[in-house]
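<context>
A single protein, sequence plus fold
<entry> Chain with its tokenised backbone below
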Amino acid sequence: MIENRLFALLLLLSFPIFSQTKGIVVDENNKPIPYVNIWVEDENVGTSSEENGHFEIKVSDMNKTLVFSSIGFESKKIKVSETGKVILKTSSFKLDELLIMQSKRTKEIEIGKVRKSGVYDVFAHNGPNIYVKYFPFDPKYSKTNFINQMVLHTASEIDDATVRVHVYNVNDEGFPGDELLDRDLLFTVGKGRNKSKIDLSEFNITFPKKGVFVGYELLIIEKNRFNTPVSYGDAKEIHLMKVYYPLVLRNWVDEENTFSYNGGKWHKQKKYKYKSPSNDLKTFEPAISLVLTN
């Protein structure tokens, strides 16, 4: 009996004790901000605020820092112990001269390689990850230099899964820089597997000479959640795994053109040995293509 109690005590001491932290994110007028991207800084733990601005997140230390970000607002870092009400300031959006040009839309080309034989990663839902794909500039785009549509391949078990779209320029380090959308762009996909064309024409974005990052943000919200029955290995017992939809198709590629945002910062996805016994090094890339117009 004593040995059992000691073993139980050792187990408790071996694992961090997580506490549930709750709060609300509002703007300067005390209006709730929905779908704010929230991460524990430098950790793989995150969440999104709900439509009413409320959020919950599990943390192991109240002295850790949370990073809050949302399109149209200045990012903010704050200690977990101070997150009862988080106020985000509205950010000023600087329009480039190229952004106010008008598209004629008489010609179209689609760029970006996509294979339908990819995989849907259900294990990427530890937080509101942002995945973007880099599209380099090509002089031949000069005759169709407006980004008209983003084409996204998704799978979902629910009827109205919502995803947020992002478009970034390239900073001096070659990472995603400034957001090129001046307001939120949310897109809802239906149940099943879909190829969706998301309209970007209203933003009048011309293709930057340094290239562009285009992608999506997973929203860790209740309306996107679905409990999927799974079993592990040879076990007959069925467990319910919490999955947030939609899932986005990924392709294994040779080029390192994918970047992800988590833990409050951007990371470049490196190549690794993706299957055995092959020694090929690959990295995943979201199945995204772009439709350009003039």
